[in-house]
User: What shape does this take?
Amino acid sequence: MRWIIGILINAVIFIALAGFFEGFQVTGIGAAILASIILSFLNVLVRPILIILTLPVTILSLGLFLFVINAITLMLTDKIMGSSFEISGFGMAFLASIILSACNLIIQKAIFEPKRRA
Assistant: This one.
């Protein structure tokens, strides 16, 4: 159930990003949900491999390189989705990864953590 809620939250964030930034485009809610599902699978399959391969850089940057890895997974999602989910470049993907991470952190602390304590 939590996975589905996370997918929907990411889809809403994708639509909000598309509304705020010209370089981020989503054709509709279906494309946002599908992009969120693809991103979820990439985070499970590809992200751990990228983290292991770039571990020295990640350690030297005190973990900030993880935003670059998140941007890479967003760019992979863009390539898989085709024209229904477009990110104009790596800079936009990097900015989107920072915003996506911050929003997910805030939502997790505000919604999921109080339920866990109760």
